[in-house]
Design goal:
single chain, alpha/beta, Rossmann fold, 8-stranded mixed sheet, 16 helices, globular, binds 2-acetamido-2-deoxy-beta-D-glucopyranose, AB_hydrolase_fold
């Protein structure tokens, strides 16, 4: 399937900035006891703008205003700067969600800074035409923005040469934090990188399994991950056997309760339904947290604790036989409903929701980043280790589809060439903690073992996408509590070492 690549390339971005499903009916009827909009941490910050070069590496055509947030309430001279490297969304999302920074600032006497990534949120280079001149959208330009901002803040707050700056980031932000520490060790004294798939590229040695994402998703629906016994088998029928594509469209429409005005054509409906199901699974896998959470729904609603397990309850019997087809379809519809029907008020399903303008912009930006630099491996199905149809990674074909969709040929080995591979990092890098969540499909694209005594990896059992960066919660497992402690113990050590004691 050609559009696998595009859909999957969007996943890293959607993991943090969920496309707003405003087209779905009834989302204003909120039937949850949990407050859906808990007050965010933005109110605890001051918003600033910093004038940055549009181009840091060649004569710049001008400057732009980069947004950042600061809280200096806990800062004591001599304390560190906790600097969040913004990723592909409005930075207030990270300001509100990154409890690890907020909960530790006082003890460390830290200055808190959250910087927005160029082209995202309100940090627009060309505000009147946000999607023009995308050539300045690169990881190098974004890092240089952060370097420049930090340099100014250090002087504003009179940082001494032995005061530390610690980078924090999740997902793509964790990749940026890792690269920041590797490339600019004089700027960042250490980095906490949550769920950062920094080895998910071509030409890394040793190479990562190109099917890692598909395998990660598959793992979540197995009994090993706490899912019901037949969940995987029932989903394999949809994915590996692509059974939905062989069914009569009218059967599908009624069993999946599609809305009368759903305009998916009969030709497309089987694949659309397959992707619709896969999308629900993918989000629930990233958001497979041990307690009810609003994060994956971007504050618009609550997913239950371990949503994949909850969804799998609808597929707990073997429904793969031909005489069970109706029950199987209803099971799939209910499975996906745990995600799409989070308000419990949907009267019908829509296979594709009209995307709003903001998420359309973000999708375009992320696609550009994917097709220019962040060319991650997405293969599936060529062996039994995942439950999807055959679409093994084909770098040439994927690169060609970038040429067709975006008119650009990816710099395929960009990160392998720029930063080297794990063996290089073990020799030359230091002061990074990488965390992975057992249930996060991105886990296999990240570092999962210690590389050196200051390059630490922690795989957090029963956690999903960067749970460790969030605020503490009564539903936290011992493992995530221990991971946060390990992270902050390392931060403390890096700060002490910088001071020379
Ligand atoms: C963050 O919290 C503020 C309130 O402080 C709220 O206005 C804003 O919408 C929140 N941002 C996101 C992306 O959730
Ligand atoms: C954020 O601000 C609120 C209201 O002023 C205050 O109650 C709360 O303690 C602050 N939280 C943090 C982590 O600074
Ligand atoms: C959404 O959930 C409610 C409550 O469980 C249910 O009655 C309704 O049929 C569901 N909608 C869809 C489209 O599955
Ligand atoms: C880890 O890397 C650092 C930074 O280069 C180096 O100083 C240290 O010796 C390495 N440690 C080990 C155990 O290899």
């Amino acid at each position: 399937m050609r559009y696998t690549l595009l859909l999957l390339s969007l996943l890293l971005h959607v993991s943090l900035s969920h496309p707003i499903r405003s087209a779905f009916p009834s989302r204003t009827q909120k039937s949850h006891a949990v407050p859906l909009h808990t007050p965010g941490m933005v109110v605890n910050c001051t918003e600033y703008f910093f004038e940055q070069q549009i181009d840091h590496f060649a004569p710049s055509p001008g400057t732009y205003q980069q947004r950042y947030f600061v809280n200096s309430e806990y800062y004591t001279p001599g304390g560190p700067m906790f600097f969040y490297l913004g990723n592909e969304a409005d930075v207030t999302l990270y300001v509100n969600a990154t409890g690890l920074i907020w909960e530790n600032a006082e003890e460390f006497g830290a200055l808190i800074v959250f910087a927005e990534h160029r082209y995202y949120g309100v940090s627009q280079l060309f505000p009147e035409d946000p999607l023009s001149n995308l050539q300045y959208l690169s990881t190098e330009q974004a890092l240089m923005d952060y370097v420049t901002l930090i340099s100014t803040l250090k002087s504003t707050y009179s940082f001494s040469s032995t005061d530390s700056v610690i980078g924090f980031g999740g997902s793509y932000g964790g990749m940026l934090a890792s690269w920041a520490r590797m490339k600019y060790p004089h700027v960042w004294d250490g980095a906490i990188a949550g769920s950062a798939p920094i080895v998910s590229f071509e030409d890394m040695t040793p190479g990562v399994d190109p099917n890692f994402y598909a395998e990660g998703v598959t793992y979540d629906v197995t009994t090993a991950a706490g899912a019901s016994e037949f969940c995987e088998a029932n989903l394999r029928k949809a994915f590996a056997d692509t059974a939905l594509t062989t069914l009569d469209p009218s059967t599908l429409r009624s069993a999946l309760q599609l809305c009368d005005d759903d305009d998916t054509s009969d030709d497309d409906i089987g694949w659309s339904a397959t992707f619709w199901l896969n999308e629900a699974l993918s989000y629930m896998a990233m958001g497979n947290f041990p307690y009810p959470s609003t994060y994956i729904l971007n504050g618009d609603g609550v997913l239950p604790a371990f949503p994949v397990r909850v969804a799998c309850e609808y597929l707990s019997e073997d429904l793969t036989r031909d005489d069970k087809i109706d029950e199987w379809l209803i099971g799939l519809s209910n499975f996906a409903g745990v995600y799409y029907n989070y308000t419990s008020t949907l009267t019908c399903n829509k296979l594709s929701s009209p995307v709003n303008r903001e998420s359309e912009i973000v999708n375009t930006l992320w696609n550009y980043q994917y097709c220019s630099q962040i060319f991650q491996l997405f293969g599936q199905g060529d062996d039994e280790s995942d439950m999807f149809w055959d679409a093994p990674w084909d770098g040439d074909a994927s690169a060609q589809s970038c040429v067709e969709s975006n008119g650009i040929y990816p710099d395929r080995s960009h990160f392998a060439l720029s930063y080297g591979n794990k063996a290089d990092w073990a020799r030359e890098a230091s002061n990074i903690v990488w965390s992975q969540g057992e249930y996060d499909p991105w886990r296999g694209g990240g570092v999962q073992e210690d590389l050196n005594d200051s390059l630490i990896a922690v795989v957090i059992g029963e956690a999903a996408h960067h749970l460790d960066l969030f605020f503490s919660h009564e539903g936290d497992t011992d493992e995530v509590i221990a991971a946060r402690k390990l992270e902050m113990d390392n931060v403390r050590k890096w700060i002490r070492e910088k001071r020379g004691n």
